[in-house]
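Tokens as discussed.
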């Protein structure tokens, strides 16, 4: 299907076919490796590969022309450009033919003005980018559409790929299973047993993925899937495959677009395997390189205290780094002690004015619950980011006049057990300061009336 906005007078400088992208080593030692080649590491130095773009071609279109093009495509119906990812196709993955794009209309998620919460914590402009308002309920859809589309492209070109595989703490497996099901491609997901929520476990099962539940943690699952993909020619879908990051970097572009092409002051991102903070940083750097923005936001990466290798490294200004054995945390999706994108994340954070903060179990649970009281419905990982925000405000590192965006990575409905146990007071070691329990009463009008007005009077005094 043709692009309905190519004829726009601001969008004719360079034909779409002339935009190019390839795999390349960040150190520049591997040359250009095609995106349809199954490869993840630099053949010379062993570093992870990044997707790199022909900036000379991208710069032939003026900044205002890019903005107009993206605005014209945004949430429209010409396939696949209405997608928040594929509407930026030239800057994401121009190598995939439109007929091979596997899209669920991802992106375009709500930028929620958290006005009540902002006032409570002393911010005039607090926004929550609700990436969980998506097909499978998490930001992982943004990267998976690119990766699975490239797999479909390779299969169409005759490449033999028996299946696509990932290790996951929940959300990656859901996204992979859904996109592979839509494309008719076999999916294999490897999960740590008893370490993902029921909602996250049922998603790949429902979408027909071959699901392995291993008696280990995420890092153990990752070791197995790496070996499988190396020895058995399965295609790796974890974020060490930088095709994923290309989709996720559109979060940055979309935030700026939703602010009418203005840059927020601070962006706070939960961090586990560290692909998302790397991708979001790449998005802002891309916009600046193309002249679409003239400054960068400050970046904050927020980690759970029980899985905090990046935070520990930040304490030495990244001079030292050691993986950790992640302990069980309510923020299960970021319970990762040996993140594969650690070097990418450190490189990205060094390019920004940045902070890495951590949150205890009680801090993240209370932060999520407090924000829920103002109309949000947060996953525990968003709770980590909010808890980091509260700390930075208390220390004066974020001021009242700054425009702050918190990245919400998944929908709260994926974590109903976490929320139910919080409000029931059943999370060990957590006081549940913002719990809201049902009042159990007999069928009696007077008792019901008295209970209602007793609570309403109490709320007036708060």
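Sequence:
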């Amino acid at each position: 299907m043709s692009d309905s906005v190519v004829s726009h007078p601001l969008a004719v400088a360079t034909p779409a076919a002339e935009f190019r992208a390839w795999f390349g080593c960040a150190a520049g030692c591997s040359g250009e490796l095609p995106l349809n080649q199954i490869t993840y590491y630099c053949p010379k130095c062993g570093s992870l590969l990044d997707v790199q773009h022909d900036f000379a071609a991208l710069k032939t279109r003026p900044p205002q022309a890019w903005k107009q093009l993206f605005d014209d495509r945004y949430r429209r119906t010409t396939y696949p450009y209405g997608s928040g990812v594929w509407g930026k196709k030239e800057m994401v993955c121009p190598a995939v033919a439109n007929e091979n794009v596997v899209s669920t209309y991802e992106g375009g998620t709500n930028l929620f003005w958290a006005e009540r919460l902002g006032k409570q914590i002393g911010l005039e402009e607090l926004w929550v980018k609700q990436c969980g308002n998506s097909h499978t309920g998490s930001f992982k859809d943004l990267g998976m559409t690119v990766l699975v589309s490239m797999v479909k492209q390779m299969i169409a070109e005759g490449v033999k790929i028996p299946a696509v595989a990932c290790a996951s703490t929940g959300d990656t497996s859901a996204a992979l299973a859904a996109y592979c099901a839509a494309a008719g491609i076999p999916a294999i997901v490897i999960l740590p047993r008893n370490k993902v929520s029921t909602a996250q476990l049922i998603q790949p099962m429902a979408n027909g993925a071959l699901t392995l539940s291993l008696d280990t943690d995420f890092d153990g699952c990752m070791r197995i899937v790496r070996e499988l993909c190396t020895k058995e020619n399965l295609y790796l879908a974890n974020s060490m495959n930088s095709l994923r990051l290309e989709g996720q970097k559109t979060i940055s572009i979309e935030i700026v677009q939703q602010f009418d092409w203005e840059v927020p002051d601070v962006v706070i991102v939960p961090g586990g395997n560290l692909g998302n903070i790397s991708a979001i940083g790449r998005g802002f750097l891309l916009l600046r390189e193309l002249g679409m923005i003239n400054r960068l936001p400050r970046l904050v990466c927020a980690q759970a205290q029980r899985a905090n290798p990046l935070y520990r490294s930040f304490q030495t200004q990244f001079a030292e780094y050691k993986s950790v054995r992640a302990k069980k945390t309510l923020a299960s999706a970021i319970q990762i002690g040996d993140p594969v994108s650690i070097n990418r994340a450190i490189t990205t954070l060094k390019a920004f004015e940045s902070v890495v903060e951590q949150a205890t179990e009680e801090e993240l649970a209370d932060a999520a619950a407090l924000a829920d009281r103002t109309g949000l419905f947060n996953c525990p990982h968003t709770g980590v980011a909010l808890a980091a925000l509260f700390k930075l405000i208390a220390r004066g590192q974020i001021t009242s006049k700054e425009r702050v965006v918190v990245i919400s990575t998944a929908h709260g409905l994926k974590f109903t057990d976490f929320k139910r146990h919080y409000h029931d007071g059943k999370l060990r070691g957590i006081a549940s300061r913002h719990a809201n329990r049902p009042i159990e009463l007999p069928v009696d009008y007077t008792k019901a009336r008295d209970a209602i007005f007793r609570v309403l009077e109490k709320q007036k005094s708060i």
